[in-house]
Amino acid sequence: MARYTAFFVIAINIEDAREILIDIMESCNLDLIYQTPSSLIAREAIGQVSISQLVTLEVVFDTATSTDTEIKMTVVLKNEELPLQPDNHCRQMFELVSEMIINHRQWVLLESMTL
Asked: What domain of life (predicted)?
């Protein structure tokens, strides 16, 4: 199973961040399938890649330490594909989503770390 994780600290409130992240998901062909006050889960649409390569995105907000002007979130992309090559589909999607988060113009990225 391929799995890639990143941690971000962003200067924005959580509600605005949720809306922007949903837009980012949609632009990456990921459909929102579940949400709670502290998380978003999206899945890649069927048809572009094989079933084992379908990516699931999980965004978890650290609601305990987030403020009205700053949020901390963990982003995980995973699929059932064995990551036999370093440039697999899950890694490509992880790079795309991470780049969109890092470079989004409606917030200020304060910190990021890839695990």
From this structure: Bacteria
Predicted model pTM? 0.91
Which residues, 6 or more positions from 54, have their beta carbon under 8 angstroms from its beta carbon? 43, 44, 46, 79, 80
CA 20 to chain centre: 11
Residue owning tokens 């006050």 = 37
The DSSP 8-state label assigned to residue 24 in this structure reads H
HSE-up of residue 99 (Cα within 13 Å, Cβ side)? 8
Integer Cα distance of 55 and 2 in angstroms: 9
Say if residue 91 is exposed, middle or buried (CB neighbours under 10 Å; 0-12, 13-18, 19+).
middle
Q: CA angle, 30 as apex, 101 and 78 as ends, to 5°?
A: 80
How many domains is the chain partitioned into structurally? 1
φ, ψ at 98 (rounded to 5°): -60, -45
CB under 8 Å to 11, separation ≥6 — which residues?
69, 70, 107, 108, 109, 110
Q: Which domain holds residue 46?
A: 2-114
